[in-house]
Specification:
By secondary structure, the protein is of the alpha/beta class. The chain is built from 13 helices and 15 strands. The protein has 3 domains: 2-67, Ubiquitin-like (UB roll) (Roll); 77-106, no CATH class; 109-360, 3-Layer(aba) Sandwich (Rossmann fold), CATH 3.40.50. The strands form 4 sheets. It has a 6-stranded mixed β-sheet with strand order 10-9-8-11-13-12. It starts with a strand and ends in a 5-residue tail after the last helix.
């Protein structure tokens, strides 16, 4: 028997299974292990203690909050889906101090309509697009960027008139991947102008002495392996910027979703790094916009399935895409937070922007090598005028 006893003395028997540890029983019941002391008779147990089916256990709440109501609200956000594939959930703290619960089961068609409504609301509320804008969509061919292109095309009648251009960077192995072919097919299907930016553009801009497709795998055998993923992303963004600057394109849209942006803010909170505003930020001469800032990864997959008739399958990641591990932790925590507090992003992103307004304006500088725009981090030592990526490429021997 495994009993949970709250501060008022209310007793609840918790389910346990063969092979469970103490922490497994608590997590299944949505009870934080840090909030309780667990005993077996007079012995206090560690969280990793295996459960003996023939023994009795007590978990006593040692915190003073109303865990019963919190667990009840989370449980309320999981109603019977009645056979539908998705439940849109939100926990909404309000001005009275109470927490409202919204949970609606929906089919793919309704979800697709909701996703477009959210995108239009995001673009309108944050003035992401204005009449006459020339918008570049970074189109890798994956679910996120493909869904962004599809959604912008769907939402066009409800948005200010703008020019839409899709651009794919020819990175490590683009032309050999299904995602590359999907990007090309999708752009043609939507009759959207589509360009391929060759890797040579970035190789010249960064002064590389060998092809980028060779550098990234080679980096994985060096001490700079944890930087390879950042270098991949940085060079891709710089390629899009160079393409945009050459053609007087004033805005770049990326398919970053809730978890992407929430993970970035968690990183900022734990490291002290400055993160610019959301869902639009100025980078050099270009405004980056994130129309999917309030859309989850799962919603994008379901929308993509509704639009294409197929459930997207991820290609196998490159070695550097699973590094560094701390970045993976931020993503794991961002998704876990959304499980416990669905709708959290509405509060976190607004709070982040309000804090930025009270602080000094975000300062930037330009890398003397690749020309990219960097956010100045005041607590960091003075650099040599180059971004971290260019310094790593130089130190690893990949620059002339």
């Amino acid at each position: 028997m495994f009993l949970f006893i709250d501060r008022l003395g209310a007793i609840e028997e918790l389910e346990y299974r063969l092979g469970d540890r103490v922490v497994d029983v608590l997590r299944r019941a949505r009870i934080p292990a840090a909030s309780v002391l667990v005993t077996q008779g007079e012995a206090i147990l560690a969280d990793s203690q295996p459960i003996d089916p023939d023994s009795s256990y007590e978990a006593r709440l040692i915190e003073g909050y109303d865990i019963g109501e919190i667990r009840a609200r989370i449980h309320m956000s999981y109603p019977d889906p009645e056979g539908l594939p998705f439940i849109k959930r939100r926990l909404l703290p309000n001005i009275t101090g109470d927490i409202g619960v919204e949970a609606i089961a929906t089919n793919l068609e309704s979800l697709a309509g909701y996703l477009i409504d959210v995108l239009v609301d995001t673009v309108t509320r944050f003035k992401l697009l204005e009449a006459g804008d020339r918008l570049l969509v970074g189109l890798s061919g994956g679910v996120d960027s493909s869904s962004l292109l599809l959604a912008l095309d769907d939402a066009r009648p409800r948005l200010p008139p703008f020019e839409l251009i899709a651009v794919t960077f020819e990175d490590f192995d683009s032309r050999d991947q299904p995602t590359y072919k999907h990007a090309d097919t999708l752009a043609k299907l939507l009759s959207i102008e589509h360009h391929i930016v060759p890797a040579e553009l970035v190789e010249r801009a960064f002064g590389l002495n060998k092809p980028l497709r060779q550098i990234l795998p080679d980096l994985m055998a060096t001490e700079y392996a944890p930087m390879a993923m950042y270098i991949d992303h940085h060079t891709t963004r710089r390629a899009l910027e160079l393409f945009a600057e050459e053609r007087d394109i004033n805005k770049v849209a990326l398919g970053l979703h809730v978890t992407d942006l929430l993970a970035g803010i968690l990183n900022s909170l734990t490291t002290g790094y400055t993160v610019a505003s959301l869902p639009m930020r100025r980078v050099g001469k270009i405004d980056y916009i994130y129309p999917l800032a309030f859309t989850s990864k799962r919603e994008l997959h379901l929308y993509h399935q509704f639009k294409t008739g197929e459930l997207a399958r991820h290609s196998y990641p490159n070695a550097w895409e699973l590094k560094p591990l701390d970045r993976n932790l931020y993503y794991y925590l961002a998704d876990t937070l959304q499980d416990y507090w669905p709708g959290l992003e509405n509060f976190i992103f607004s709070s982040h922007n309000l804090k930025l307004r009270r602080e000094q304006p975000v300062q930037t500088e330009s890398c003397s090598n690749c020309g990219s725009t960097l956010v100045v981090q005041p607590f960091m030592p003075t650099t040599v005028g180059e971004c971290d990526v260019c310094q790593v490429l130089h130190n690893a021997g990949f620059r002339d």
